[in-house]
Amino acid sequence: MTQAAARARAERINMQIISTLADRRARIGIGGGDRGCAGPARQAMQLVQVVDTGASAIEDGSHGAKVVASVPVIVTAPGLLTARRRLPAVLGRMDERDARRVAADRYALAVEKIGSVAGASVEGIKADGGAATNDGGATTRILHAGTIKAVEHTLERGAVVLAPSARGGAGRRAITARELIDALCLNNSDMKSILLAAGWSGHRRDVARLSCAAEDQLEEMARALGLVARTAPHPAPSLH
To answer: Nearest 5 degrees, angle CA 175-CA 180-CA 185?
Structure first.
């Protein structure tokens, strides 16, 4: 076999491996229905039954009155599954309308939008230092810059969310709020993989601790983005 033929064969094998990986991530060939274009860099998909929450009038047996209650509503057609982006367990457990889940999605969208626009900084200034023109790119950055700045300010307050014990933990390093949220929201990393990347063993106890820290940080992000009303201080009791 000539060198050119060997190179062509290797390229075909590599393309086949990449194509197979892309199809697997998009769950192509499993069930029917439309899927996004396959690509190894695209988010992995999973097949799920989508359940929403709706209001329904239920009769109260003791009084015969109608009361409104939230009941699960299955959105996916019977016998079918819906292709959805695969999420880490922390986000997957949350309802899509949960303020913490919405905050995570908004942060990821803002980073993606700003990263996809070239030629302008977050402040809306051209990369060459000149004044930015209203060409859509700078406007997009300005619109999403507020979200990113609010989240970054929150994560700076969070600082370290998981630190190794002073008595041991050789090879482990502290995990900051910024590292945790970026890995969770931007890279779709689960808690165990975040721990392993920081030199931790991925023990179930540490996964639980990091999951709680992630939920706390997402709560603060939701408050910073105005998705959750800040708790008003209780008024001091009046003295008579």
So the answer is: 170
